[in-house]
Amino acid sequence: MRLSRYYLPTLKENPKEAEIVSHRLMLRSGMVRQSAAGIYSWLPLGFKVLSKVEKIVREEQDRAGCQEMLMPTLQPMELWQRSGRYEDYGPEMLRVTDRHDRGLLYGPTNEEMLTDIIANTVRSYRDFPKLLYHIQWKFRDEVRPRFGVMRGREFLMKDCYSFDLDKDSARKTYNKMFVAYLKTFQRIGLDVRPMEAETGPIGGDLSHEFIVLADTGESGVFWDDDFKAIDLSDVDYDDEVRVAAVIAHFTELYARTEDRHDAAAFEDKVPEPRRRQGRGIEVGQVFYFGTKYSEPMGAKVTGPGGQSVAVEMGSYGIGVSRLVGAIIEASHDEDGIIWPDPVAPFDLALINLRAGDTDCDAACADIYGKLTSAGVDVLYDDRDERPGAKFADADLVGLPWRLVIGPRGLKDGKVELKRRDGSVDENVALDEALARLIAVAGG
Ligand code: 5CA
User: Fold this and answer.
1) Among 336, 358, 375, where does a domain finish?
2) For residue 266, how far is its CA from the centre of ligand 1 (angstroms)?
3) In this structure, what CATH number is given to the domain that contains residue 316?
4) Residues 245 and 368 occupy one common structural domain
5) Which residue, of 48, 212, 243, 388, has the fewest CB within 10 Å?
6) How many Å lie between the centroid of ligand 1 and the Cα of residue 156?
């Protein structure tokens, strides 16, 4: 993409309303614009990142055996009256009335809707287990929407719902989803710690939040610092023994959100030098709540012995739009964003130091063509701007690689190749730079 044609409304000044770094950087780099309090439009650069995060989330759900579907944003009030949550949900629920005076609501989550679908379509125990999910916008009329997309009112969530015949099988499903979450966040390039959590309005008595440690997070957390993440790339979801071992590794040490914190247990289990207390961003949460919805909503099947059983359920959410903010909180410097490669909006910033110079223009056009056809996603800064402005924008937008083409270097056949995270900063022959970029970012 040529920057001269791209819609990238960057801001030079820090927007006053943005209290935290991810919100500032998302506004400044032209990723989002606020449309109303806690409601955002995703501009092309932001939308690209959101789509990449969504794709990784989707791939890992699919690998874990979940099936994607799509439920509507608007839900009938009656469904929630049947589960008993219509009143309980309170002012966070956005309620609307249609022209026939029927009550609708903008869905904050989908337990009721999917339980009802299952109740009306599945009859036999042979149809279980089932794992179904969608990635859809949600609305929660938060009292204090803030921090940009991190606590929005309208936000994109991946929510998955599991249906099992008995507790044992439901627990295995919970474990599998737990590992799918760890793998998802690892693939995105985030360090995430699972923590025991309260279940809140979703219900049940078993739940974990997946927390990115960050001072700007909204959850108070307590943890044992003696923790080392392990590589999960080769975990097979059907290998129950391995899945159980991963769960054991990630849950054996003390790690709890403040609602579940037990000061006595913390002091008892964790030696003083390893005790940590801080803040974190909740990027996902998993719940097991048994028959809380299936019982009142009639999601029952006839078991092998002819008896009627309510199905065992769990639900599993990931804040897809919140993740974009969380990634920036975890990965930036004073000049801008530092995108992890898997979710970067483009692979490379190609900077033409002297747009208008025949040699520079020709060299850049050639490089752009070669890299693009080799599968490298290039944002080519062909604007007639000062080099300083181009570098500042490139740092702000934070693409993993940067290739700088200037008249002096071109004469010696050299270009500057740099990584945004500082791990590479070299003057190399053009061909070598191209070969390296194609090897790491192409295809
Ligand atoms: N039904 C369950 C799981 S499917 C559920 O709704 N869980 S939740 O309430 O924990 O939300 C799932 C995830 O959505 C959270 O972990 C968080 O990452 C994200 N989320 C929740 N509220 C907001 C919000 N106001 N803005 C942005 N993301 C949010």
Assistant:
1) 336
2) 27
3) 3.30.930.10
4) no
5) 388
6) 9
Regarding whether 325 and 211 lie in a shared domain, the answer is yes
CA distance 374 to 437: 9
Name which of 417, 439, 436 is nearest 427 in CA terms: 417
Residue 312 tokens, joined: 């065992």
pLDDT digits (tens, 9 = 90+) for 157-204: 999 999 999 999 999 999 999 999 999 999 999 999 999 999 988 888
- What is the C-alpha to C-alpha distance for residues 123 and 117, in angstroms, rounded to an integer? 12
- DSSP state, 14? P
Task: Please give the pLDDT value at position 331.
Answer: 96
Whether residues 201 and 89 fall in one domain: yes
Joined tokens for residue 385: 């701007």
DSSP calls for 285-317: EEEEEETTTTTTTT-EEE-TTS-EEEPEEEEEE
Which phi and psi (to 5°) does residue 175 adopt?
A: -65, -40
* Domain with 363 in it: 346-442
Binning pLDDT at 50, 70 and 90, where does residue 149 land? very high
pTM score of the predicted model: 0.96
Q: Ligand 1: residues whose CB is within 6 Å?
A: 109, 111, 140, 142, 151-152, 155, 157, 159, 202, 282-285, 287, 315-317, 319, 321-322
